[in-house]
């Protein structure tokens, strides 16, 4: 490929020697033959192709340090690399930037760039985004595999308290670790449901009792059930806090803050009931207790700890802040415009229900969201026309951002399933390699691997020989450059 002399390409140094300009380099990458000229390659002297220009004078040792094979008759360098990735990488010599072709694994492409000694700064920003996403996926897989291996391993050097603390943490936080842990998770789920049902049933007047002062209060039986549920939640939280490896991170976690908010109102109400009457008026104490009891609704969010679907919904909404913001902005603009128009058009009617523009906001909200309570409605012809346009615009405004939000949910849900499958595949691969020659002791081998991983990467030297399509380079100390026959599917 002769590209020299084209005005689109970067200028070369004026002091380049004539010999360097006329140097012809023949490269065979995975069966694809390419011809380069020295004036193009010399623009980036640190790259592997540029080093081929002067390697012939260094003998065969210098040649074979750069390539896999060399034909002195054809003066042709052979590389057992991915030719598709190579075709993208050589663009840097002509255009000063690299675009990754669709269908190439970003991690494999990064390894190819490192092999050809091309800096990642030449990779276009759109391709760097794909690379960063792939890195995050591999880091997540590595983290999941590490957690599973940590659960399998038992370090004999740890104290009895540390081992007990680790067992309690696994018992309460990881239902998949054992059958008793699953039973505890189901019990916790049932206590959450029971406490939520009790909170709702306790507000039914027929089930309430009247105290000595004539005030209605919850039935003592329901109060006892709630006390038992709070006792379970308190014991569960305290045990998880004591066994937590990182107590500060545990205390600041969102779900653990929800747990505290679900437990705290009970104890604050109990304290105010028994001690507050001595410090303030009884009516003020009752108002404070009633306000705190409303906070019991926070316990319903504890279901997210035991529901992967709710967790996926939460993460999807976090990633959809932009779309949700657009939705609120569309509705806010429509509400302001149509409420002002509705107020103006309805002023001519003597029995108008639109007393002011702020009061018309309520009508605009229920109209654009197609709820339509009917407590406020237009009576003039222009007002009805304005109402028809407003709910049509409301349907369009709500429908536009919904599709991206749904896509975010489906993408994140599928990604979590893929990561979970990939982590299981890595564990099966590790077990398969560790069982070679010792088929009867696969579990003990994994435990040994987990113990070896305490101080460094948790892939042992025996496992580093594995090169699967999902091999995680992040878990190994060594650099593994794949050949074109080992490229990612």
From TrEMBL:
Any one cellular-component term (Gene Ontology): voltage-gated potassium channel complex
Superkingdom to which the source organism belongs: Eukaryota
UniProt KW keywords: Cell membrane, Coiled coil, Ion channel, Ion transport, Membrane, Potassium, Potassium channel, Potassium transport, Transmembrane, Transmembrane helix, Transport, Voltage-gated channel
Membrane topology of the entry: Multi-pass membrane protein
Entries under Gene3D superfamilies matching the protein: 1.10.287.70, Potassium Channel Kv1.1, Chain A, Voltage-gated potassium channels. Chain C
Coiled coil: 415-452
CDD domains: BTB_POZ_Kv5_KCNF1
Region (Disordered): 1-20
PANTHER family per record: POTASSIUM VOLTAGE-GATED CHANNEL SUBFAMILY F MEMBER 1, VOLTAGE-GATED POTASSIUM CHANNEL
Protein name (database record): Voltage-gated potassium channel regulatory subunit KCNF1
GN (gene name): Kcnf1
């Amino acid at each position: 490929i002769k590209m020299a002399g084209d005005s689109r390409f970067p200028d070369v140094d004026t002091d380049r020697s004539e010999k360097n300009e006329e140097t012809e380099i023949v490269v065979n990458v995975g069966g694809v033959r390419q011809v380069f000229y020295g004036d193009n390659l010399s623009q980036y002297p640190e790259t592997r192709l540029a080093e081929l220009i002067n390697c012939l004078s260094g003998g065969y040792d210098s040649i074979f340090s750069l390539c896999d094979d060399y034909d002195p008759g054809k003066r042709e360098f052979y590389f057992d690399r991915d030719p598709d990735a190579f075709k993208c990488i050589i663009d840097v010599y002509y255009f000063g930037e690299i675009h990754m072709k669709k269908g190439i694994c970003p991690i494999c492409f990064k390894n190819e760039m490192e092999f050809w000694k091309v800096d990642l700064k030449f990779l276009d920003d759109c391709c760097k985004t794909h690379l960063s996403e792939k890195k995050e996926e591999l880091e997540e897989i590595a983290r999941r595999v590490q957690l599973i291996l940590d659960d399998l391993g038992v370090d004999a050097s740890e104290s009895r308290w540390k081992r007990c603390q680790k067992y309690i943490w696994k018992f309460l936080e990881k239902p998949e670790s054992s059958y008793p842990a699953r039973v505890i998770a189901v019990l916790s789920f049932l206590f959450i449901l029971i406490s939520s049902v009790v909170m709702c049933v306790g507000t039914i007047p027929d089930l309430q009792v009247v105290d000595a002062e004539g005030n209605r209060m919850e039935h003592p039986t329901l109060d006892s059930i709630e006390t038992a549920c709070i006792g379970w939640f308190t014991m569960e939280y305290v045990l998880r806090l004591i066994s937590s490896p990182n107590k500060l991170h545990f205390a600041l976690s969102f779900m653990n803050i929800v747990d505290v908010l679900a437990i705290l109102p009970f104890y604050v109400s109990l304290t105010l009931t028994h001690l507050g009457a001595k410090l303030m008026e009884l009516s003020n104490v009752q108002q404070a207790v009633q306000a705190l009891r409303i906070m019991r609704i926070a316990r319903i969010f504890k279901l997210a700890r035991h529901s992967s679907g709710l967790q996926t919904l939460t993460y999807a909404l976090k990633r959809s802040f932009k779309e949700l913001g657009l939705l609120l902005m569309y509705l806010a603009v429509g509400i302001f415009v149509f409420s002002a128009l509705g107020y103006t058009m309805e002023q001519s009617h003597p029995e108008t229900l639109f007393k002011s523009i702020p009061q018309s906001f309520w009508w605009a909200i229920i109209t654009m969201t197609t709820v339509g309570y009917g407590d406020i409605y237009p009576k003039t012809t222009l007002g009805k026309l304005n109402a028809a346009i407003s709910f049509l615009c409301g349907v369009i405004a709500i429908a536009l951002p919904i599709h991206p939000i749904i896509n975010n949910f489906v993408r994140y849900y599928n990604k979590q399933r893929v990561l979970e499958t990939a982590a299981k595949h890595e564990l099966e691969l590790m077990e398969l390699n560790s069982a070679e020659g010792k088929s009867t002791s696969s579990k003990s081998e994994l435990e040994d691997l987990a113990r070896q991983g305490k101080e460094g990467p948790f892939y042992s030297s025996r496992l580093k020989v594995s090169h699967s399509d999902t091999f995680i380079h992040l878990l190994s100390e060594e650099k593994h450059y794949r050949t074109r026959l080992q490229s990612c599917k």
